[in-house]
Write a structure and sequence with these properties.
Layout (H helix, E strand, L loop, with lengths): L15 H12 L11 H4 L6 H13 L19 H4 L5 H36 L4 H16 L14 H5 L2
């Protein structure tokens, strides 16, 4: 099977609607940090649930998604990526790469918010001001579940789109 380059589109960025759709889907899952067989359908990489499952399987096979932990390792996207995911046309492969990097950024954001929540919880345990810290903990949780379309980009995190142009 050869990738279809006839409809090679330059629109490879995820729209806000696609980001929100994927984000909602992941939040509804048992382990929201781990992409699954329907994540690529929900993120707009493919319009087929079957192809989405094949993409997930191929990413696990090639080490982009760790088969045991489900974590993303974008360093495993190699020059053979187009051949490894020949089930997708080239423009969808590009969209997939942008989606993987975007999701990796989301995981970094969640990790930082988790660290912040742990610090607040520790401060409460050490006898800090309970009400203020409880409110701060609620704010952190609200930030964690806020849809991408309604939150402002955290200025502390670098944006992949700014560096590479995805």
């Amino acid at each position: 099977m050869f990738p279809n380059v006839a409809n090679d589109s330059t629109d490879v960025e995820m729209s806000q609607t696609q980001q929100d759709s994927l984000f909602r889907w992941q939040l509804s899952q048992e382990n929201p940090k781990v992409l699954n067989g329907l994540s690529f359908f929900m993120g707009g990489v493919t319009e087929s649930k079957t192809i989405s499952a094949k993409v997930h399987s191929a990413l696990k096979k090639n080490g982009v998604i760790d088969p045991t932990t489900g974590t993303i390792n974008t360093a495993n996207i190699t020059k053979y990526f187009a051949h490894q995911l020949a089930v997708l046309p080239v423009h969808r492969q590009r969209k997939l790469v942008c989606m993987l990097f975007w999701w990796e950024e989301e995981l970094v954001r969640w990790r930082l918010l988790g660290e912040e929540a742990a610090e607040i919880t520790q401060a409460v345990a050490l006898g800090g001001e309970g009400e203020d810290l409880t409110i701060a903990l609620q704010v952190v949780e609200a930030k964690r579940t806020m849809l991408p379309s309604i939150r402002k980009q955290d200025p502390k995190l670098p944006s992949y789109t700014e560096r590479v142009g995805c």
